[in-house]
Design goal:
homodimer, about 190 residues, mainly alpha, Tetracycline Repressor, domain 2, 8 helices, elongated, DNA-binding
Chain lengths: ~190, ~190
Amino acid sequence: MSARHDELVRTSARLFAERGYHGTSMADIAAAMGVQKGSLYSLTDSKQALLVEAMRGGAAAFHDALDAVAEDATAVDRIRDALRAHLRVVAAQLDVATVFTREWRFLEGGALEEIRVARRRYEERWQALFREGVEQAELRADLDAEAAALLVLSAANWAYTWLRPGTDTDRLADRFLAILVDGWRGYATPGPG
Amino acid sequence: MSARHDELVRTSARLFAERGYHGTSMADIAAAMGVQKGSLYSLTDSKQALLVEAMRGGAAAFHDALDAVAEDATAVDRIRDALRAHLRVVAAQLDVATVFTREWRFLEGGALEEIRVARRRYEERWQALFREGVEQAELRADLDAEAAALLVLSAANWAYTWLRPGTDTDRLADRFLAILVDGWRGYATPGPG
DNA sequence: CCTACCGATCGGTAGG
DNA sequence: CCTACCGATCGGTAGG
């Protein structure tokens, strides 16, 4: 709603990312906002509500990033776009990405289930990119699509632990792709067929 | 020291993995041990000391796993052994692996620095496996060893979030390797040269 | 947005 | 290993 509310959500996400949800007190958040902790409750219902809001921001950012991937490109190009988009979100919203990836398990009740669904759907969208690549014979027929998706998503999900803001994430995505597409051995790479 | 002490460390690791370090109280741990919380302090100095002990167990398990990798094998075989060994540790000691990977940042003082060093050294040992593979011309000359290590370590480090005890981790490692060695496109794979 | 407060719980200790 | 307790802090509320 208000700008002050948005600032509160961003500040909480930052502290949750730094110290963890249970390691952050409402007094910590209030100090970072420059007010007394009682004052926070005119901007939010509870500490849990702040976690829910940060989490929804993360879910939306990652799904929106995938939405922007071109529909009509080749499988490898689409996966490249998806990985670039994911890493861009991590670098641009490192706190929210961290909370989304690491602190979601402290959600309670319906919000926990909601975010679990959003996370599962995100993984399924990634797996689909690989299955389509195999079906359209752009990726090798015996490719283990499940393992391939798990590998690239692991790198994408682990990124919050080491990615620094300001990194050229498009180039980083390409470095990963250069390995994943042709492998460590990487014999000469003629076109398919 | 005592069997009761070991049980306390294992129980704490399990709760730290489930609820997080700051989400676990000494009363929670005492209840899981079937005693009153005051009784825990004859077995440990503090909650922080329990985290330190779990963490040292994790560091030792991962380093020991790498120590067991054959010295005289090819680079790909050594990396395969290393990944198998890592995933075996994760599956066999899921709680400790989770704490080591996710809760280390709640260590304080010298123990934090100690574990940071152990984690960094572990990553460097992995990078060395790739550099040696390139130097010995078993992996392609233009391989981005840093990105290659980051990729496989991401999968290894992310594993605690989805790996179930009882999984055939050697087979899982091989599924990952099948993709990483020859890539998604995977043209016919003649021997080098 | 502040002050003042609530009951509950925190990690840890004393004394047995 | 227990009971009883410590001061500090927790998330949250009332009333202004």
